[in-house]
């Protein structure tokens, strides 16, 4: 379970990028962060992933905080973002073994996991190619395979389908659903309504560093009195965005 | 050591397939050639059978006119005496290594190069013209003319060697010859006169005195181990090379890891793994240390193979010193790498460290035999002295322990700092696009100060990069090429002469002229020139490698087209090159004609002296990579680089400015020279833009310098190239504004005129072909 309690973050004085955000993500749930560019989605996700420290507030991951149990959190969390890239001069194969060792996966199990995840995403034929030679979609898939190498309980996914073609995004989304059913807690950010609508169990609309509203798709539609989810979002945006 | 740390260390030695096949091979073979050249120098120091004369252009011959029979006898006698002395040293090898124990004249007389007496007979005792001819023919520096009754006069005691009876003529163009002439008269002729008196049974006080003169003139201080060649090599050269190897390999490995990983976005992934920050720091530091150890231990092993250096304790101590130094340098690079976000900024930040460490090396070399006191126990200094002492088997255990302990403590502190820096957001999270947008929103849509600084930084840093990169690359290779030359120069008699002359220097101007004298010696040294030719080729390879690394997706062959040297259309390139050669020859020919016709210079002769043939030949080859490397540095690579931040016209202007600035350190530089170099650079840049590659300008550059220096015998940008086909001298009333004075024609109006004409022609053709200069 991921729990954020009144999280604040400011890069510059008197300007809060994240201004008091609280939410809970239960195991076996996909939690969506929806918001326009610059709303603070990435900042929030980086804080959950322990890459940044909140200015104030607490983030608990299974009751652990980054200050005390950083490495234990890292063992249980997988962070996927377009900001994380792969060494362009290395190969998927070499990167897989490198990260497997960093995650301290038993040697006997490395080959098994490699076969499983390379097989799932069809990376096998490209295993010995340099990363620069791969297509964007293949890079993204290698990135996912490597970020989830340790089978983390919590997955933080920034814009999962960014830059992917339809086939690849379906593959990725199916995988996410599969992970949900096996009890993983997933936090993902997106600005694509259909994706949020079809995939997320709960959605938080983040505007100017605050959660404008949170709930299931239907709850949000009811709350704003709109007809569609898209309309609900725009209503929330107009009400909450300060000029 | 946990598994994560081991994985990080292992990643340093992963087979980096991307390097391609051609880079290592090209660099390997050029390095092999370089190493062979340096090895030849080494061999020439330690073995007597090496034909050192090949590398020597010294002239020690003496023309002796009307030698009395006894003089020829005495000459044979001294040869025997010298051989006997050589036997005392054990072998000719030892004898040469101990040249400091041999008197100055004796050394020159018997020294490297084919020095000998050339006997001539004539009745005309004052025929200067003939003497001059003989001197030129035989490469002699001195002519000695004996009067017919020299023996009788000496025997009767009324002759004075440097008086009126013996006439000497010597070349006046170097202090060295003056000193040698004095030595010849004071030592050799005195000895000869004593020999005559002795052979006739006349004993005078002089004969005793002359014996002691030999000893008194010995330059040795009695401490041979430190002043000997072996001492210089062990305590200066070998540690220096080891230091440079460590610095370079640590810098390239260290800046590529954390800063490089931040730059390409892979660092966040590593931070997300359950590997502690401490393990990351230790893993990377160990990896960098090991990478730095490979070349330095190889060099040390090679040095230890030389019999003089081999000893078990020496090997252990050397390895310990190298390991501790590598650890320290690796720790420093890790701190720098953590602080910086890109490889280039990390390398720029490493530059001051590099310069400081090189300065340390220089101070160490300067007083390697002196009392070094506290420095012995300090990091870096301690390693430099320690390696030197270990090689010469002066093992000082307390010094080694203190030095290694202090180094380890400093390294540990550095690593601790890196670790604590890594727990700060500032040094771990790259400012991503979202954060940037937030900042922009905070400032109301206008670019923030930081962004403006960023933009200015980009504009300034590209210029700084383009100014310093050639400077660094050039000085590295020039340093490597000059080291063997300096060391071989230090072994020669001129060196001690030079040093003793330095004591009498009183003004800055004199120091400058002394420095240029030394540069002149190097520039006409075929060894230096051939090493530099390889060096220039290596500069081009370095640039190609940089372009290759930066572009990442191209092959090494394609990287050359990024330098303006496309390899895909050889016949077209060759045609361009030949066209350029013709253009260069025409331009320099016109300059020469203008200077001749305006009566500023005079044609005085034709042909290259035999002794300078080597220099001449090497010069001819040297100009080819020299011209090409400057074109790569200032045109092919620099203009596209500056164009990324500025408009192309501005890039052309700035690159030309940097070109002129770059040459401002040369001798005799003047404002007019600056203007000339600027417009020459402008001309080359326009040709580059017109042709789209630098094949043609490479040829113009090469032939321009070649024709100037080795065809017409003029100075090239302040450097006298020594050997030339035509001989030219300035008339007494020559005006510096036309001829350029000491800087050569490039500092004069004749060049300005010719280049402006060419510039106009190229501009017209550019405009006609419709390709705007700025675009």
Q: Could you please describe the fold and organization of this structure?
A:
The complex is a heterodimer of chains A (243) and B (775). In chain A, helix 6 links the parallel strand 6 and strand 7. Chain A is α/β, with parallel strands linked by helices and 243 residues long. Chain A has a domain of 170 residues: P-loop containing nucleotide triphosphate hydrolases (Rossmann fold), CATH 3.40.50. Helix content of chain A is 41%, strand content 23%. The two termini of chain A are 36 Å apart. In chain A, the strands form 2 sheets. In chain A, strands 5-6-7-3-8-9 form a 6-stranded mixed beta sheet, with helices on both faces. Chain B has 3 domains: 288 residues, no CATH class; 169 residues, no CATH class; 270 residues, no CATH class. Chain B is flat. Chain B has 775 residues and is mainly alpha-helical. The C terminus of chain B is likely disordered.
Tell me briefly what this model is:
With 243 residues, chain A is α/β, with parallel strands linked by helices. Chain A has nine helices and nine strands. In chain A, the strands form two sheets. A six-stranded mixed sheet of chain A has the order 5-6-7-3-8-9, sandwiched between helices.
DSSP helix fraction of chain B: 55-70%
> Got a strand count of chain B?
6
Strand order of the largest sheet of chain A: 5-6-7-3-8-9
Strand content range of chain A: 15-25%
What is the rounded distance between the termini of chain B?
58 Å
CATH superfamily of the domain at 2-82 and 152-240 in chain A: P-loop containing nucleotide triphosphate hydrolases
Q: Return the average pLDDT of chain B rounded to an integer.
A: 74
Find the biggest chain interface.
A-B, 46 and 39 residues
Q: What is the string of SSEs of chain A from the N terminus onward?
A: EEEHEHEHHHEHEHEEHH
Which structural class should the secondary elements of chain B be placed in? mainly alpha
Major sheet characteristics of chain A: 6 strands, mixed
């Amino acid at each position: 379970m991921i729990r954020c309690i009144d999280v604040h973050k400011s890069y510059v004085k008197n300007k809060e990028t994240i201004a008091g955000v609280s939410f809970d993500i239960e195991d076996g749930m996909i939690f969506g962060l929806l918001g326009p560019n610059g709303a603070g989605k990435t900042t929030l996700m980086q804080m959950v992933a322990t890459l940044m420290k909140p200015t104030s507030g607490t983030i608990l991951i299974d009751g652990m905080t980054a200050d005390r149990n950083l490495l234990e959190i890292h063992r249980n969390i997988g962070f996927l973002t377009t900001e994380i890239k792969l060494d362009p001069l290395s190969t998927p194969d070499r990167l897989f073994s490198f990260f497997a060792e960093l995650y301290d996966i038993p040697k006997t199990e490395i080959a098994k996991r490699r076969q499983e995840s390379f097989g799932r995403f069809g990376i096998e034929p490209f295993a010995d190619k340099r990363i620069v030679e791969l297509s964007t979609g293949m890079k993204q898939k290698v990135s996912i395979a490597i970020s989830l190498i340790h089978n983390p309980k919590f997955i933080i996914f920034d814009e999962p389908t960014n830059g992917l073609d339809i086939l690849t995004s379906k593959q990725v989304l199916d995988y996410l659903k599969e992970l949900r059913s096996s009890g993983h807690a997933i936090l993902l950010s997106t600005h694509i309504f259909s994706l949020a609508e079809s995939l997320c169990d709960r959605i938080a609309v983040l505007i100017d560093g605050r959660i404008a509203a949170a709930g299931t798709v239907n709850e949000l539609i009811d709350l704003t009195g709109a007809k569609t989810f898209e309309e609900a979002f725009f209503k929330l945006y107009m009400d909450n965005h300060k000029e | 050591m946990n598994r994560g740390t081991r994985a990080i260390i292992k990643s340093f030695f992963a087979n980096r397939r991307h390097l391609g096949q051609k880079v290592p091979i090209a660099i390997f073979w050029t390095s092999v050639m370089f190493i062979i050249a340096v090895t030849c120098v080494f061999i020439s120091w330690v073995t007597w059978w090496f034909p050192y004369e090949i590398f020597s252009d010294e002239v020690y011959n003496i023309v002796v006119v009307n030698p009395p029979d006894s003089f020829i006898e005495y000459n044979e006698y001294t040869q025997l005496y010298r051989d006997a002395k050589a036997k005392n040293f054990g072998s000719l090898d030892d004898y040469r290594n101990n040249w400091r124990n041999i008197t100055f004249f004796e050394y020159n007389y018997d020294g490297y190069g084919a020095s000998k007496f050339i006997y001539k007979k004539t009745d005309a005792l004052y025929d200067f013209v003939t003497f001059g001819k003989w001197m030129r023919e035989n490469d002699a520096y001195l002519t000695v003319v004996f009067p017919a009754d020299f023996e009788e006069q000496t025997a009767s005691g009324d002759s004075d060697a440097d008086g009126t009876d013996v006439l000497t003529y010597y070349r006046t163009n170097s202090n060295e010859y003056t000193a040698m002439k004095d030595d010849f008269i004071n030592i050799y002729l005195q000895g000869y006169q004593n020999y005559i008196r002795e052979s006739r049974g006349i004993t005078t006080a002089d004969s005793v005195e002359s014996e002691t003169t030999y000893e008194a003139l010995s330059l040795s201080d009695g401490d041979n181990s430190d002043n000997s060649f072996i001492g210089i090599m062990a305590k200066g050269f070998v540690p220096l090379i080891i230091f440079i190897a460590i610095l370079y390999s640590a810098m390239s490995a260290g800046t590529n890891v954390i800063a490089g990983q931040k730059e390409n976005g892979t660092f966040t992934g590593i931070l997300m793994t359950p590997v502690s920050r401490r393990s990351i720091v230790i893993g990377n530091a160990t990896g960098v240390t090991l990478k730095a150890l490979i070349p330095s231990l190889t060099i040390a092993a090679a040095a230890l193979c030389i019999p003089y250096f081999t000893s078990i304790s020496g090997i252990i101590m050397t390895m310990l010193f190298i390991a501790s130094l590598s650890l320290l340098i690796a720790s420093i690079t890790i701190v720098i790498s953590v602080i910086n976000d890109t490889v280039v900024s990390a390398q720029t930040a490493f530059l001051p460290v590099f310069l400081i460490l090189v300065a340390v090396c220089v101070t160490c070399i300067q007083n390697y035999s002196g009392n070094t006191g506290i420095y012995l126990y300090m990091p870096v200094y301690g390693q430099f002295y320690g390696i030197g002492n270990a090689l010469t088997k002066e093992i000082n255990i307390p010094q080694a322990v203190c030095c290694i302990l202090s180094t380890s403590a400093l390294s540990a502190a550095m690593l601790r700092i890196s670790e604590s820096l890594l727990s700060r957001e500032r040094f771990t999270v790259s400012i991503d696009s979202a954060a940037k947008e937030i900042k922009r929103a905070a400032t109301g849509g206008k670019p923030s100060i930081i962004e403006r600084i960023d933009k200015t930084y980009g504009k300034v840093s590209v210029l700084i990069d383009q100014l310093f990169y050639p400077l660094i690359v050039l000085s590295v290779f020039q340093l490597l090429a000059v080291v063997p030359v300096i060391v071989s120069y230090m072994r020669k008699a001129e060196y001690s002469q030079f040093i003793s002359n330095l004591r009498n220097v009183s003004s800055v101007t004199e120091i400058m002229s002394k420095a240029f004298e030394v540069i002149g010696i190097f520039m006409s040294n075929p060894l230096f020139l051939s090493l530099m030719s390889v060096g220039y080729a290596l500069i081009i390879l370095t640039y190609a490698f940089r372009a290759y690394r930066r572009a990442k997706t191209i092959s090494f062959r394609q990287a050359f087209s990024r330098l303006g040297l496309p390899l895909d259309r050889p016949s077209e390139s060759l045609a361009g090159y030949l066209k350029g050669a013709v253009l260069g020859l025409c331009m320099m020919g016109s300059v020469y004609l203008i200077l001749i016709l305006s009566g500023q210079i005079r044609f005085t002769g034709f042909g290259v002296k035999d002794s300078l043939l080597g220099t001449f030949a090497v010069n001819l080859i040297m100009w080819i990579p020299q011209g090409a490397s400057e074109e790569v540095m200032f045109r092919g690579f620099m203009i596209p680089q500056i164009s990324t931040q500025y408009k192309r016209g501005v890039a052309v202007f700035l690159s030309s400015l940097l070109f002129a600035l770059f040459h401002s350190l040369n001798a005799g530089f003047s404002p007019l020279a600056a203007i000339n170099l600027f417009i020459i650079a402008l001309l080359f840049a326009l040709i580059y833009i017109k042709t789209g590659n630098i094949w043609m300008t490479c040829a113009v550059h090469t032939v321009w310098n070649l024709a100037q220096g080795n065809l017409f015998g003029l100075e090239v940008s302040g450097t006298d190239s020594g050997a030339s086909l035509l001989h030219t001298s300035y008339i007494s009333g020559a005006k510096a504004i036309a001829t350029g004075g000491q800087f050569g024609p490039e500092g004069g109006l004749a060049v300005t005129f010719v280049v402006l004409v060419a510039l106009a022609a190229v501009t017209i053709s550019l405009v006609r072909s419709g390709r705007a200069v700025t675009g």
